[in-house]
Amino acid sequence: MAADDDGRTEDPTSKKLEDARKKGQVPRSRELSTMMVLLGGGFGFLLFGHYLASALYRTFEKGFSLERADAFDMHRMFIHLKDLAAEIAIPLLAVNIILFIFAIFGTLAIGGFNFSTQAMVPKLSKMSPLKGFKRMFGMQGLVELLKSFAKVAVVVGAAYTCYLLYADELLQINIAGLPGGLFKALEILIWVFLILSASLAVISLIDVPYQMHQHTEQLKMTKQEVKDEHKNAEGDPQVKGRIRQAMFKATQRRMMKEVPKADVVVTNPTHFAVALKYDPLGRGAPVVLAKGADEMARHIREIAEAHQVPILSAPLLARAIYYTTDFEEEIPEKLFAAVAQVLAYVFAMRDYKKGKSKQRPNSFKPSKLPIPPDMIY
Questions:
Q1: Which secondary-structure segment (H or E) carries 266?
Q2: What whole-number distance in Å separates Cα of residue 109 and Cα of residue 35?
Q3: 361 in Cβ contact with 348 (< 8 Å)
Q4: Over the chain, what is the mean pLDDT?
């Protein structure tokens, strides 16, 4: 409700969730952690309780059995302590290992592993009495109070069930003798402990989805925050537009510098212009040194005229190269034959003008160029 009141109606984005993890904000359920620790202790005692009880029995037996030499040698006391510690070390260690495993699983079951140095930094806002009162008497405090009542009710119910199950066996313990009676009492105690611990699963099944929902609610975002995040992630469209425009202008300047090096400029004749360069000694195909439409095409023609670069009108070829080939790229293989005819005419005309050839080449006929149908635009 609080999230809706201030306009936070959108689910948190993946970046918002990741930033929250870096700050140590992950969903955790104390009820689940508590239940798993108790269950771990119960299962540990269930599996190794007999060995631990036997070790304790032997420890007490040895501890209260003194020899005459023990009264005159203080060092024997430390020897006895070492022996007694070794007696109970292994079963006690086994119980603690199981307890540790359950405790880790209970903590990481929701939210996963998360280590955050930011969460270690002390914050004065957490020490604010006002915020403390809000937590105590707000919705969160009410939920915690209800969970406390529920836990008491569930545990009391489970305890009464255990009484009904083990009432007769408890009454017979006093006649079982030692150590049988002691072991039987410990066995009943372990099972009662396990049942009481497992009863907390009812609370955990409610608390886990609630904590996950509460975590999502706390991280909810406004529509504007979502837009701003997408803008920051993908880049401001206006900034990207200015960058593209600057890159386009830089490319235009480069192309204008390359036009004088071209062998021929093929035009539409007015709407498109493409400047081509072919190196007979090279291994590649003709390369596009510049291309443009409308105003850009006019600039290319003007520069070509100023530097006496031949200009030929071949509308279909000019459009085909313009739409299929970018700046500084080789022309497509399908246009090799058409461009070869254009270059052959240009080189022949150049030789004729320089006097290297006495025969003037036939007039250029753009309609005869072999342009494939799929290259016509």
A1: strand 264-267
A2: 12
A3: yes
A4: 81
